[in-house]
Amino acid sequence: MSISLPTPNIAHLTEEDYEHVYEPAEDSFILLDALELDAQLIRDDQPTICVEIGSGSGIASTFLSQLVGPSSSLIISTDINRYACEVTLRTAQANEISLNPILCHLLDPLLHRLKSNIDILVFNPPYVPTGMTELMDTQNQRDIGGAWAGGQDGMIITDVILDKLPELLSPIGKMYLVTVIQNKPLEITRKMESKGLVCKEIIKRRAGRELLSVLRISRI
Length: 220
Ligand SMILES: C[S@@+](CC[C@H](N)C(=O)[O-])C[C@H]1O[C@@H](n2cnc3c(N)ncnc32)[C@H](O)[C@@H]1O
Known about the structure:
Layout: H1 26-37, H2 39-45, E1 49-53, H3 59-68, E2 74-79, H4 82-94, E3 102-103, H5 111-114, E4 118-123, H6 132-141, H7 156-168, E5 169-180, H8 185-194, E6 198-207, E7 210-218
Parallel strand pairs: 1-2, 1-4, 2-3, 4-5
Antiparallel strand pairs: 5-7, 6-7
The structure holds S-adenosylmethionine.
The site of S-adenosylmethionine (SAM) has 26 residues, from α1, α3 and β2.
């Protein structure tokens, strides 16, 4: 039986917030839909450590927290943008859950501790193909531009994590990754399979000019 969960409340966020923080859009919602499709699977696994990279408004971290329920799961969210960390905290409070967003590049300060420990990893990355200068500028500015600029094939930031994924996932670990067709999801699948992981497109949708999908990458 499928599980249906309410979309987190983000009514507290203002136009001013969205000048600096990514406003949830179709890519955010396809990620929530993918998590909802897998809700029973995720609950059955009883995940202990769940991580979102690039939490933005906090909508996906909040949804994940509500999905796993008041359990012993720890939800860690990171973002490179300090406004996003503040907004994630406010979204958590507005939805009466607890999150402790960490301001950092990807998972940098946590890598050592998270090795082989991540049960659920969620990432809606900056996936838009751009030049390298735009990628580097937006990563350095740590503001709204960092929400989409993804460098070559839109994959430069995502690849950093994919290369480390085999070391990060726990034995039951699963990553949910948002992609667009320009990211070459088939190539991602081949690459992850060559690292001994299983990669499956669990949902696909056209949104305007974007062909979005969510890949589930797991050990089993
Ligand atoms: C497409 S937005 C997704 C936001 C939110 N998760 C959602 O689904 O609506 C990408 C997010 O990744 C963050 N981000 C970009 N580069 C990052 C990095 N190097 N480390 C951590 N977060 C990063 C951006 O600041 C932005 O909040």
